[in-house]
Amino acid sequence: MRISVSEAKGQLTDLVRRAEAGDEVILTRHGQAAVRLVPIHQPVDGASRRALMEKLRAAARPAAGPDAARSQDFLYGETGLPE
């Protein structure tokens, strides 16, 4: 989208929203491109967001530890009686 600086004065909020959504907004002065409005953070597409969420889920899973059913075996002897 190309719009003159004088027209953009009254529509700045809308232009910023459009730029944040990924639209290319170019402000012109005397018919020549002067500046481009771009978001600081590029919008994340669905595939990238999904990959990030899967990575976070995998990192949050606890590591496999010792089996709870065998965790107190050290308390008992070979006969099964307490030592």
From TrEMBL:
Highest taxon, organism lineage: Bacteria
InterPro entries, A to Z: Antitoxin_Phd/YefM (IPR006442), YefM-like_sf (IPR036165)
One of the Pfam families matching this protein, by short name: PhdYeFM_antitox
Region ranges (Disordered): 62-83
Function, as annotated: Antitoxin component of a type II toxin-antitoxin (TA) system.
Listed NCBIfam families: phd_fam (TIGR01552)
Family: Belongs to the phD/YefM antitoxin family.
Name of this protein: Antitoxin
Gene source species: Sphingobium yanoikuyae
Lineage, opening ranks: Bacteria, Pseudomonadati, Pseudomonadota, Alphaproteobacteria, Sphingomonadales
